[in-house]
Amino acid sequence: MRIALFTEVFPPKIDGITTRLAATLSELVRLGHEVTVFAPKSAGDFPGVRVIRVPSLPFPPYPGLEAALPDPRITTELARLRPHVVHAVGPVCLGAWGALAARTLGLPLVASFHTDLAKYLAGYRLASLERALWAWLGSVHGLAHVNLCPSSVTRRELVEHGVPYVGIWRGGVDSERFHPGKRSFAMRDRLTGGRPDLPLLLSVGRLAPEKGIESLAWVMDELPEARLALVGDGPDRMRLERVFAKLPVHFAGFLEGEELATAYASADVFVMPSSTETLGFVALEAMASGVPVVAADAGGLRDIVQHGENGLLYDPSQRKGALAPINELLASRGLRLELARMGRKAAENASWEAETLRLLAAYELAIERAQRSLLGKLWGFATG
After folding, report:
1. Is there a contact between 112 and 90 (Cβ–Cβ < 8 Å)?
2. What is the reported pLDDT for 191?
3. How many C-beta atoms lie closer than 10 Å to residue 142's C-beta?
4. Is the CB of residue 287 less than 8 Å from the CB of residue 311?
5. Residue-range domain boundaries for the chain
6. How far apart are CA 129 and CA 267, in angstroms?
7. For residues 359 and 32, what is the distance between their CA atoms, to the nearest angstrom?
8. Are strands 56-58 and 66-68 parallel, antiparallel or unpaired?
9. Non-local CB neighbours of 180 within 8 Å, separated by 6+ positions
10. According to the model, what pLDDT value does residue 162 have?
11. Which of 89, 201, 218, 301 fits a 20 to 30 Å CA distance from 374?
12. What per-residue string of b and e applies to 228-253 under the rule 16 or more CB within 10 Å gives b?
């Protein structure tokens, strides 16, 4: 199958979407598909994939993002490629231009929703744009023959906003890369500031206002014997360093590859305070690493963490909501081991191969719907 994929972000940028893209592209190439990616100008190369870089400008409200400029060459290039399907990933700017070009050329179109941008706006003093943003997203996703999102909660939200044909594409985890066997005393020593004997809490993700990381300050105030490591970076780091200045918190910055896998496995409890996640890949990576998860009872995290079965959920509207489940886990080694075991089992059933096959099924459905639509138009023309 020839696939043209448009994405607002691409490696070397590090976030949940690029993690999903890298794993999916590797599977598509392994399965013998021909993939061309349209990405912003900062995009790197990717093995087995042709990358077309589109002119783009920095997006000041969200450092690290680029806004692609309208470019007629997109349509020209798509016409030359004549892909079997076009996939717009998180379409806002570049994805929107790709979606418009695909429909202009009569190509099957899949659009996938990954980031709840509307919920992020308040943190960047842009809440007044929420209605306009949903109108734009609705119009772009309305062009697609198939829409995808990562969780049932997100699906309900999209349907409520009038987005049609919404299915679920969760994404997976590499349970060999993220593995309990990678637990390391040296990493614990590093992340605890030289106190590997003390309980280690871990949180991984972008340091941004919408991630709710500041709420962990109230929790750490009540856990003087515990240590917290924050893995990641982002626009809110300097402010958060001030917030946590008098608490036993280590800012580890971005970690990748084996370092990241070792950091996960070396923790005692993984904490996910964000209430804006459409899925929460990092929680799945923690589960694969054999670490019990405490997560906000919100968004797509509810699809991953089953309370009392493979992790614990808490009410993020409560200032110290995470404190009780963290204390419960730290007080019971048996509970930690049981939730870790069940979390690992859930992660083993979420392979990238299986999720990529589901994506390919969505591509086939989009092709079928596009063909039916074309036949319907031809029939109407013939009988009109």
Report:
1. yes
2. 98
3. 14
4. yes
5. 2-172+351-383, 180-348
6. 39
7. 15
8. antiparallel
9. 265, 289, 290, 291, 340, 344
10. 94
11. 89
12. bbbbbbbbbbeebeeebeebbbbebe
Instruction: Establish whether the linkage from the previous residue to 47 is cis, with ω within 30° of 0.
Output: no
Contacts of residue 216, defined as CB under 8 A and 6 or more positions apart, other chains included, come to: 201, 203, 228, 271, 273, 322
Q: Where are the beta strands (DSSP E) in 196-320?
A: 200-204, 227-231, 249-253, 269-272, 293-296, 312-314
Burial call 186-207: b when 16+ CB within 10 Å, e when fewer: ebbebbbeeebebbbbbbbbbb
Angle at 281 between CA 280 and CA 285, to 5 degrees: 130
CA distance 325 to 37: 43
Q: Where are the alpha helices (DSSP H) in the chain?
A: 16-30, 73-81, 94-104, 117-120, 130-141, 152-160, 185-191, 216-221, 237-243, 257-265, 281-288, 301-304, 323-331, 333-348, 352-383
Residue 285 pLDDT: 96
Question: In 3-state terms, what secondary structure has residue 379?
Answer: helix
Identify which of 260, 203, 242, 197 has the alpha carbon closest to the alpha carbon of residue 14: 260
The pLDDT assigned to 66 comes to 83
Residues 6+ apart with CB under 8 A from 133: 117, 118, 121
Cα-flanking dihedrals φ and ψ of residue 182, to 5°? -90, 10
> Can you identify the CATH homologous superfamily of domain 180-348?
Glycogen Phosphorylase B; (3.40.50.2000)
What gap in Å lies between CA 215 and CA 233, rounded to an integer?
17
One fold for both 2-172+351-383 and 180-348? Answer: yes
User: Distance (Å, rounded) from C-alpha 156 to C-alpha 87?
Assistant: 21
**Phi, psi at residue 54, to the nearest 5°?**
-105, 135
The CA distance from 93 to 108, in Å, is 19
For 69, the token pair is 């400029």
Alpha-carbon gap, residue 144 to 85, rounded angstroms? 11
pLDDT along the chain (384 residues), means of 10: 96 88 97 97 95 87 74 92 97 94 96 82 67 91 96 93 94 94 98 97 94 96 96 95 97 96 98 91 96 95 94 95 97 97 94 94 97 69 54
The CATH T-level fold of domain 2-172+351-383 is Rossmann fold (3.40.50)
